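Hi team,

Below is the intake form for Transposase from Vibrio coralliirubri. Please confirm the fields before the structure is written into the shared record.

FORM ID: S-0412
PROTEIN: Transposase
ORGANISM: Vibrio coralliirubri
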Amino acid sequence: MLCELFNVASSCYYEFKQRKPDASRIRLASQIKELFNMSRGSAGSRTLVSMLSEEGIKAGRFKVRQIMREADLMSKQPGSHRYRHAKVERPDIPNLLKREFSVSTPNRVWCGDITYIWSGSKWTYLAVVLDLFSRRVVGWSLSDKPDTELVSKALEMAWEQRGCPKNVMFHSDQGCQYSSRKYRQRLWRYRITQSMSRRGNCWDNAPMERLFRSLKTEWIPATGYLTQAQAKKDISHYLMSYYNRQRPHQANDGLSPVNAENRLKSVSGIC
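The structure came back. Fields below:
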């Protein structure tokens, strides 16, 4: 009688009663939601497929995208930005990197840059050092002043954490912090070769621009942080935990930076 009332075929009703829930799909949906929430809503279907793969779960992008649509999960998408182009190099610190961002081994090329973050009632400045081999953050520093001390602390952290390496090239923009005498003396002390982008050309330091874009669009709250201490704790978690150890990178064939370096160690036999 109800089937006739709602104009539903009785065979469809009995088929629906016999249908069993797909336990594996329910588990997969739960794992996708967990990873999506861990990324603070920034992971899309491609990223989620890579994250699931690192956990030993095989799932196609179409299936993940379908589950995301069913669960109403929509990833954050950064807006477009128009970049300027320039060709002016510093004669004393040339652009040695020349956009050769593919590096075969760790501790050969590091990149650095500074960005600003709102915390409390003022700007807080973040300096980061990135290893181009795996796109791993190897040093960072936070301060309320965008001075040479800020970038020096980030470099010192990278140099110590990576075991005081030799024959490293450090690339940055032409900011006064990186071209200051104090910073250049620090590079000379560490026996690090300095390279600088052309003036106003952010494409010469694209990996750093990509890192800061990911940080601001994926992680930092739209209204900023309440205090600098809160900003330091949350940004530290993003850089050293989520970004380095969990977030997949296309440059690493879908592996996180730490897993990419571990893969190199296992292949080459490096301890």
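SUMMARY LINE: The longest helix spans residues 228-246.

Thanks, M.
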